[in-house]
Amino acid sequence: MKVLLTGANGQLGHCFKDIFPSDWQLLATDSQQLDITDGLVVDNFVALHRPDAIVNAAAYTAVDKAEDEYELAYKVNAVGPKNLATAAKKYHAKLVHVSTDYVFDGTKRSPYLEDDLTNPVNVYGETKRAGELSVLDNYSSAIVIRTSWVFSEYGNNFVKTMLKLSQTRPELTIIDDQLGCPTYAGDIAKTILEMLMNDIQGGIYHYCGDEYVSWFQFASKIFAAAHELNLMTNSNVMIKPILTSEYQTKAIRPLYSVLNMDKIKQLDIKAPDWEKALIDVIPRIHL
Ligand SMILES: NC(=O)c1ccc[n+]([C@@H]2O[C@H](COP(=O)([O-])OP(=O)(O)OC[C@H]3O[C@@H](n4cnc5c(N)ncnc54)[C@H](OP(=O)(O)O)[C@@H]3O)[C@@H](O)[C@H]2O)c1
After folding, report:
1. Which CATH number is associated with domain 2-156+182-210+258-273?
2. 182 lines ligand 1 (CB under 6 A)
3. Over the stretch 197-217, which tens digit does the pLDDT of each residue have?
4. Which residue ranges of the chain lie beneath pLDDT 70?
5. Ligand 1 centroid to residue 77 C-alpha, Å
6. How far apart are CA 221 and CA 200, in angstroms?
């Protein structure tokens, strides 16, 4: 199978390249090689290479910065996916697009279902929701995977930030009233491959780590794992739980964004054990 990967230098892009089957053909592109916001460029690229599938790992993911960069976030998160969906449909390629738990407002108190009402509370979530719609409106056979709290050995993420901050700060205050499911990018990559190998009905699928936690609980697990692996440079770091109201950020975040995975489980895809992934990933993180 010939697969076009966009956003190849991001967390998911890197992990996808790492596990890509050696007997398949991968066209891995970064934003220089294929800017997904340019419809003509996307059409020409897909027409020339005729991939069997397109995996969109490209996105504008800076949640706070997006509040000041609506246009750019919209172009990357909504226009880009529309361009890919249009080309995928035109040239008969499968499309897997990735979205986020931040399409929800977080007022629910039980895991969100795929067809629950979306109501993003920040620009990032709004543009990602626009992307979901632009993909499915233009290509109903496309697969949209909503995931959450992504971490990996690559790029910027909460795990890396915690380990880095612990080196220089005696105390860290971490939000304890936002709940979500950490997800290892490598597990998302594996699931995308599985979905490409099978004939999956188009639509939205939720996929995230198996247990939900608060950011504070996530940080506690990170430091416990690093400690166990003898990789804590400052074992004395204190972590203190705080409320969202005590920590000002540009973008509002949903207080609860746990995703229900019943739909994807029907495809024999299990919720990944993110704590196990964390133990595997921490030694591979370069600070
Ligand atoms: N990170 C999270 O916590 C999280 C949570 C939920 C859902 N998600 C979703 O999961 C997916 C993967 O996220 P990630 O964490 O792997 O993202 P990431 O590490 O931020 O990578 C995104 C990549 O997109 C590329 N990109 C940006 N603009 C582009 C353009 N115009 N054309 C082509 N590529 C472009 C960037 O490449 P350049 O550096 O070359 O610009 C970057 O390498 C995204 O859809 C994201 O919304 C992420």
Report:
1. 3.40.50.720
2. no
3. 999 999 999 999 999 999 999
4. none
5. 9
6. 35
